[in-house]
Structure formats: C-alpha cells, structure tokens
Amino acid sequence: MGTDAITDEDLMLRIGEGDQTAYSMLVNRHLSMNLGYATKLLGNRAEAEEVMQEAFIRVWKHAIRWDPARKTKFTTWFYRVVTNLCYDVGRKRKPQEKVEILETIASDEMSAENVIAVNQRSEQVKEALEELPHRQHTAIILCYFQGLSNREAAEVMEVSLNALESYLVRGRRNLADILSDEKSSLLKEIG
Question: What is the pLDDT of residues 38-69, one digit of tens each?
C-alpha cells in the first residue's frame, strides 16, 4: 500500500500506538501548507514555525485519544489547532506589530513599474486585512488563501456555515471600504 493510500486518520491511529514513521508521514503531508497558513495569519515566519512545532506536539499527544468513529477529519481538526495557537500568539502581541498576508511573485516579463504597483497593492491589501476583525480575517484567509470550502472553514472556526458566510460577506465589504478609503486619501494627498 502506497503512503498516499494511508489516510490521515489511519496515521493518527498508528501514531497513537507510538509509530514514529506514521508521525513523520503526517508531518511531511501537512507541515508546508499549515506553515504557510500560520505565516499568513501571523505575518511572522519564526512565530509560525513555533506554532507548527506546538501543533505537531499536540498531534503526538492527542493521537492516543484519536477516535476513528468521530466525524471530524484530521485536516479540519489540525487547522483548528493551528488557528487557535495563532490566536494565542496574536493575543500576546503588541498592537502595532504588522501582519503580513500576501507574497508577490513577479514574472521576468513584468516591468519595474508593474512590479512596484503590484507590491504597493499587495501592501495595501495586507494592511487592510490587518484592520479586519479577527474572525473575518480568519474566514478570508481560510477560504481565499488556503482554499478551504466554506463548510470546511466553518468547521475549523467552530461556527455554523451561515456564520462563516456572514464573516466572509462582512469581511469582503470591510476590505472594499478600507481599500476605497485608502484610495480616496491617496487621491486627496496627490490632488
């Protein structure tokens, strides 16, 4: 049986029995994506790496109690663990610390002016996302940056599907308002 055929839930059961190979397989499957997610939420790679270390320690400790009959998938449970750890880190921060969200990758064909414009717009979006309430921010990151379905994101955030959709609607509206206000302020400064 190939390693891809073994489910995350089966790996959790094996980890619960002390199987270090299963643990390594699970870490290899989920570290990169979740590290990116934590980095997007926190804007700080070093903090995100610490969150991931703690999250995988929790995997090891929780695996012995993993219940295969439960309806929650491992990925949903693990996103919830990572999200909560990021919330904890965020609560301990000083308010002025920045949260970086987007990474801009410019192709060789882009002119210097286009690269600068893309970078400036990315920075504006980063700053606008920082201003959103925490739940709206998380909903947008999960759905638009991590590619989770609305249902999966609702499970991660432990809210109803309607609540998640409400966070997304309000988050998009707030982002549009914030970005519109920034554009108006910039035009006033130039004009």
Answer: 988 888 899 999 999 999 999 999 999 998 88
